[in-house]
Every structure is written in structure tokens, then in C-alpha cells.
Input
Amino acid sequence: MASIPLFNPKAQYGPLLPELKERMGAVLDGGRFILGPEVRAFEDEAAAFLGVPQTIGVANGTDAISLVLNALGIGAGDEVICPAFTFYATAEPIAQRGAVPVFADVDPVTLNLDPADAARRVTERTKAILPVHLFGRPAPLGELTGLGMPVVEDAAQAFGAEGIATTGVASTFSFYPTKNLGALGDGGLVSVTDEELGERIRLLRFHGSRDKRDFQLVGYNSRLDELQAAALRVFLPHVAEWNRLRREAALRYAELGLGELVELPPDDGRHVYHLFVVRTPERDRVRAALDEAGIGCASYYVTPLHLQPALAYLGYEAGSLPETERASRENLALPLWPGIEPAAQERVVGAVRSAVRERVPS
Output
């Protein structure tokens, strides 16, 4: 029986290959590869899609966060509150700026940053809050902005989700190929609600210069290239439909009875399911059964950020973020992509059901 992957990006871009090859061929024919018409057009189209004044194409999602923090003037000794149940790239740019990542716990239901715990960690040195729209579920932005700090949204996993990008001062996106809007390699984007901030980020992404002769800032070399922008322009009009199909597949898992076996991600109507992540104390048993059945699965952030060796200097100990640590022990991502076959989902549920039955004493 054929294996079932965790991701299947080609299922998204496969039907678009003729258009994709034509658009990328036009870039090759034109000979303009850096900050050309494709990047400018994609920035305009992405801004219209997100409902923001402007977007800035950058090299990747990590750089997107770094550029925003720099543009906000965050540096040595400043504090930025963020979750520890996220990819390392959320906190890494904070530390690189000489600032202090301050980890708050996550909500036990949504796994997004807990506003109450974030509020407890605000000090006079707090300069920003950096929530993550984890796995495609929008974070509670209204409550977080109410804390009185600039909110920078890590939206790497949530392109197209309702309610993102227009609340925080800036939002950052990754176009890693498995994302809801993925490129054919690395790529990133910053969206802004403040045009002056956007212009500063635009300056910073290109060595702090507008013309390669005069340099106003110490900046970065972080640019979305023309070929990736061309691909993203082909994909962008399909994101809403792809997200609809992701949601449809997530609901199908519930209809197949998966919720009787594991804890499903609660659906608030806005989740776009970059990953379909369930929870179970029997994670290792279930994962082993899926592996044996040839079904792709993965556990994320098994060592959360506050316990990572590179951040040990911050002084967090095991047990200091209990909900984060419980999520790290229990989470398991199951196969989901736009257009996943119902038969494949039935196989997934069947394998999970077999694993759960095995643990029940006869």
C-alpha cells in the first residue's frame, strides 16, 4: 500500500506547472533577478490580499522578524515577550539583537500565547510582544494589543487566515515550500500597518541604502528574488481556495471519528491548518503505529525554546512553563494538505484507532 506523506506541496503547485513555467521563463528572458518588476508586483498584490498599506519582500521568515525588530529600535537589554512553543526562528532574532526573549506560557486549548501570562511578564523593559499564529490558528491579538506594547505577528504559518496582519504594527511571513503560501525555495515578507515603519524596513533589507551609493543605516542583504516572486504571484490567487480545502480536510477528520481517539484542535472558524496537530498522552504509541503503516507524522517543538541549549543563559528550568511542556510531550501532526483524498484520511484514522485499541486491556 502506498505511503501517505505528512505534506504534499506538489498537490498544490502541480496543476499550475504550465503557468508557473511560463511566468518563470519570462523572468529568465527578461534577465532581471533582484528587486525587479515581479517583486514589486507581488508586494502590491500581497498588500491588497492582506489589507495593509504595504508589504516588503525579504529573503526568509527569520529575516522578516529581524528587520522588524531592528526597525522598531529594539536592542541590547530590551525585552520581547513570545511563546516558547514555536520554532527557534521566533526567538533567535530577538537574541541576535542583544534583546531578551521573555517566554510566556501558552493557552492549554489553543496552544497560542496566553495573554494573561504574557501580561504577568511585562516590565519596564518590555518593548514588544511577538505572538505566533501557531499551526495556522490566529493568536488572540485583541487581548495582546490591550497590554499596551507594539505587537509583531509571527504569521509564518498562517498566510490567509482571517484577522491577521491588520492589528499588529507588523506581521512576518515565511514562504518555505510547505507553508500555506509556499515558494519554490526560501522567501519571506513583512506587512505593515504603519507606512513609515515599512519604508524603514525597505531600507534595511538592502544594506540601509536606496541606491547602492549612499547608506543611511547599517542594514541587511535580505531580498526576495524575482524567480520566487514570480512563483508566488502564480500561487497567491489560489491561497483562499487552498485554505478552504485545508479546513474541509480538518473537518473530515472529525467526521471520521478521530476526536474519539485523540484531542482535536478546536476550530474557531479562522484556523487555516498549516498543520493538523492533535494531542494525546499516548503520542509515542500512536506515532509508532503511523510509522509502521507508512503514514507521515511529526511531533513539533519537542524541546521547547526555554529549554534549548542555546538559550540556557536565560535561566528557565523544566516545569517553568507547564502548558508549553505538556504540549511538547503530546502534540502530533497528521497528514493534511489541500486535496488530500478522503481514503487517505480514513487510513490515518484507522491506524490511530488500532494504536488506541492496543493500549486498552482485554
